[in-house]
């Protein structure tokens, strides 16, 4: 990428990406890009570079789509809840920005919206939601006909709402109700922002949430058996760029994988209209930007084997080689998953000092890069 210096940390952790590994971890693709929205208002509350919202706003403006399925969040009685809506205006797209890391009910909530909508649609999906959508498209031509573009977010895993509840409980002053909550505002890993009924706001580093999440505390059960990190079966996959070389870049960028001709045409149209900044990159750079997560996410076999230690049954669709270190990482993940699957475990983990959580996470990360 133009002007991007490689950092010694990135060089240290660089892996060899053979075509076999790329096929396993990334799947089929036509081109890869680093991208961001050129509109600063779109970047302001974006999860990363605002590429998804920038592209969706452009497709709405040009009449290529009539609506976009997005994921929303709201606070009800101090509980943060995630849901869906079909956005038909730029304002609705902006209101739905940011990553929602808590479990949703895609079949029960998003599918009826898609069924009822009259017009051309783009869908923002987690990789597992693309499986549901693609099954539906195969069996129902009327649904297939209205879906114009599918965009999958790269996905490490999603969490049970209990994790957000824990983080809110730690941040909320006594006697004041929570009225708003946003994940990952701002640069690099970003901040959590809480709004309260008295008009006050509070920010905390995103690590107040992600340290628990990256240790797989409160992980949703379905994610244990998932090997699809980037959304093999969509038109466009969009994620973050976790390269130290990007840490000081004032603009967060997205890693983008175009898998269909339609996705490439939409990106080029947004580029020509001055809506997106796009730079072509080799697929290896996208893999480098997810170097720790890709092999670990794919290796369901390690989780299936380690699950036996803790009595958690995980079905294995990949039959991958398991090194000792893969087994150890999976054993920690499965232990932490199991621990916070009980009410007593959740309380105990919530009481652990943050320093201990941080040290535990560093130890797991050290194992993951081996
Ligand atoms: C659960 C989860 C795990 C993720 N894990 C990784 C990871 O491991 N590595 C990585 O590189 N990136 C990951 N991402 C993706 C990343 O956080 C950004 O969402 C992505 O890079 C898009 O950035 P953006 O600036 O273009 O998004 P924005 O412009 O903010 O747009 C994001 C769009 O996605 C929609 N959306 C948000 N959450 C969901 C959801 N749960 N389901 C469906 N649609 C949703 C929003 O409504 C919005 O329309 C994850 C995202 C989620 C939700
Ligand atoms: S890890 Fe897989 S199963 Fe879990 S939310 Fe992400 S895509 Fe879905």
From TrEMBL:
Signal sequence region: none
GO MF annotations, alphabetized: oxidoreductase activity, acting on CH or CH2 groups, with an iron-sulfur protein as acceptor
Domain Coenzyme F420 hydrogenase/dehydrogenase beta subunit C-terminal: 120-281
Pfam families documented for this protein: FrhB_FdhB_C, FrhB_FdhB_N
Domain Coenzyme F420 hydrogenase/dehydrogenase beta subunit N-terminal residue range list: 33-102
PANTHER family for the chain: 7-HYDROXYMETHYL CHLOROPHYLL A REDUCTASE, CHLOROPLASTIC
Protein name listed in UniProt: Coenzyme F420 hydrogenase
């Amino acid at each position: 990428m133009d002007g991007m210096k490689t950092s010694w940390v990135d060089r240290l952790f660089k892996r060899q990406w053979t075509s076999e590994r790329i096929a396993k971890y990334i799947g089929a693709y036509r081109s890869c890009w680093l991208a961001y929205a050129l509109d600063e208002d779109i970047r302001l509350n974006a999860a990363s570079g605002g590429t998804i919202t920038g592209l969706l706003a452009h497709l709405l403006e040009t009449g290529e789509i009539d609506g976009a399925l997005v994921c929303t969040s709201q606070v009800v009685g101090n509980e943060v809840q995630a849901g869906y809506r079909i956005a038909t205006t730029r304002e609705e797209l902006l209101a739905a920005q940011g990553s929602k890391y808590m479990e949703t009910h895609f079949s029960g909530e998003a599918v009826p919206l898609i069924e009822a909508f009259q017009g051309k649609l783009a869908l923002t999906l987690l990789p597992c939601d693309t499986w549901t959508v693609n099954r539906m498209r195969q069996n129902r031509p009327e649904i297939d006909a209205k879906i114009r573009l599918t965009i999958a977010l790269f996905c490490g895993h999603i969490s049970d709402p209990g994790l957000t509840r824990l983080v809110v409980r730690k941040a909320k002053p006594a006697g004041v109700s929570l009225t708003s909550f946003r994940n990952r505002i701002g640069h690099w890993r970003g901040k959590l922002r809480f709004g309260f009924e008295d008009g006050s706001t509070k920010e905390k580093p995103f690590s107040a949430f992600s340290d628990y999440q990256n240790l797989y505390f409160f992980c949703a059960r379905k994610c244990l058996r998932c090997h699809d990190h980037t959304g093999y079966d969509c038109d466009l996959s969009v994620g973050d760029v976790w390269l130290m070389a990007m840490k000081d870049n004032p603009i967060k960028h997205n890693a983008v994988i175009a898998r269909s001709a339609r996705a490439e045409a939409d990106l080029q149209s947004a580029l020509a209209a001055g809506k997106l900044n796009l730079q072509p990159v080799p697929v290896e750079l996208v893999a480098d930007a997810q170097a720790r997560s890709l092999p670990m996410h794919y290796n369901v076999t390690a989780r299936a084997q380690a699950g036996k230690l803790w009595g958690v049954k995980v079905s294995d669709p990949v039959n991958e080689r398991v090194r000792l270190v893969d087994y150890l990482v999976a054993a920690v993940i499965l232990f932490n998953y199991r621990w916070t699957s009980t009410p007593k475990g959740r309380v105990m983990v919530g009481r652990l000092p943050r320093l201990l959580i941080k040290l535990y996470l560093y130890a797991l990360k050290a194992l993951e890069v081996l």
